[in-house]
Amino acid sequence: MNISQLPNFITLARIASVPILILALDQRDYRLALILFVLAGLSDGLDGFIAKRYRCATRLGGILDPAADKILLVGAYVMLTVLGHLPFWLMVVVAFRDLLIVGGYLMYTSMYGPVQMRPSGLSKFNTLMQILLVAVVLVQQATGIGYSGAVDVLVYAVLVTTVASGVHYLWTWGFMKDIESAGGRSN
Hints:
Blueprint: H1 6-26, H2 30-53, H3 59-82, H4 88-112, H5 121-143, H6 150-176
Helix pairs in contact: 1-2, 1-3, 2-5, 3-4, 3-5, 4-6, 5-6
């Protein structure tokens, strides 16, 4: 395999790990789920590092990488909700924001042409908070060590950052149109 293909291969492996994560959670094997979630997170950093370090970032990778993150997080949120570890309303908010982003992207590109999406600082912080919540729940379930109130605080932090990030995307697309086209010019 050529080094230029390695980041996309790692991303595809991350996507392929999601059904295994879901099955581990379904079996309440929280240790395996935690290991898979941590490995997925490490693979996310690794594919980005390789793509930048060896200048082999591709348009496909630019689409696959955030898709892999969304698939992983939504899969984890759905399962942790089904198992009763997260509130249903939070899963709906997280999933709806991701549907809003994908739908907004598709609508925007159909109206204005291809664009190069870059997550905002707020969006990156939201993703960090979403990951942190899943990690804390998995650590609690895998180890039996409880962090008094940590999950409750994180649930509301994820709610706030998810809504704020979704509103930010709507603002950017609807009012500012400050999105760089794939060709490098601003719309």
